[in-house]
Write a structure and sequence with these properties.
The structure is a single chain. The chain is built from nine helices and four strands. By secondary structure, it is of the alpha+beta class. A four-stranded mixed β-sheet has the order 2-1-3-4, with helices on one face. A hairpin with a 2-residue loop joins strand 3 and strand 4. Helix 1 packs parallel to helix 3 and helix 1 packs across helix 9. It is globular, with a radius of gyration of 17 Å.
Length: 225
């Protein structure tokens, strides 16, 4: 790991781009921002396509290394730049396994299977591309609430964060999904609401929200990716 990392983050304006912004603020890292947005044409330029042929945001450049996918970026930052004073990842093997389980669960069940399905079929989101389907949206919202019960059980034992007393990048993934769900009018469980409010009070979260604001306004249809 370089003593002075050369970090550049491509992407702002979505529930997924905020994740690496937040992780870097939690870790106290300095980085440059390329404030490109989704579905603006900016991800399809020759320059960006060379870096990320999938033409998606976010993308992290760490020197000559590039990595995409928000959860993968956050995991990379957590493994590479955590310190004893600022760590986003557990230390023991079993805690690491539990952390991975939470990360995979959040990305697969809450984000991709639930919230992004809603985004694809909402009239005010990507329905014009994938087809407006109110019943699909309603079922995806219900599935989100069903899966969120696992979070409710975990938080019911009085723990502060998903991993107990330690804030980790799993909390970053969960909070962005909860924010997204609230924006879509999905009710979150009783234990998740105070958890969300507690996490939103973190200085790094608020700094990330500010850093994730697009330079120019984006359309409502591009607000969630």
């Amino acid at each position: 790991m370089s003593a002075t990392p050369d970090l550049t983050l491509w992407g702002v304006g979505t529930s997924r781009t905020i994740r690496p912004h937040w992780a870097m603020h939690e870790l106290g890292l300095s980085y440059k921002v390329k404030p490109i947005g989704p579905r603006t044409g900016e991800t399809k330029t020759a320059e960006y396509t060379r870096l990320n042929p999938r033409q998606k945001i976010p993308l992290l450049q760490d020197g000559d290394f590039c990595i995409g996918e928000s959860a993968a970026i956050v995991a990379y930052l957590s493994r590479t730049y955590s310190t004893p004073d600022r760590s986003l990842i557990p230390e023991t093997q079993r805690e690491l396994a539990a952390w991975l389980e939470w990360c995979f669960f959040i990305v697969a069940e809450l984000d991709s299977t639930s919230l992004y399905v809603m985004r694809r079929h909402r009239a005010d989101a990507l329905g014009h591309i994938y087809g407006v389907a109110p019943e699909v949206v309603a079922q995806a919202g219900e599935y989100f609430r069903q899966q969120l019960r696992h979070v409710e059980v975990a938080l019911a034992d009085g723990r502060t964060f998903l991993m107990g007393d330690q804030f980790t990048s799993a909390d970053i993934l969960l909070t962005t999904c909860l924010d997204w769900a609230v924006a879509y009018g999905v009710c979150i469980c009783d234990n998740a609401q105070p958890y969300l409010e507690r996490i939103q009070s973190r200085a790094a979260y608020q700094q990330a929200v500010a850093a994730n604001v697009p330079v120019a306004p984006i359309t409502p249809a591009a607000a969630k990716v």
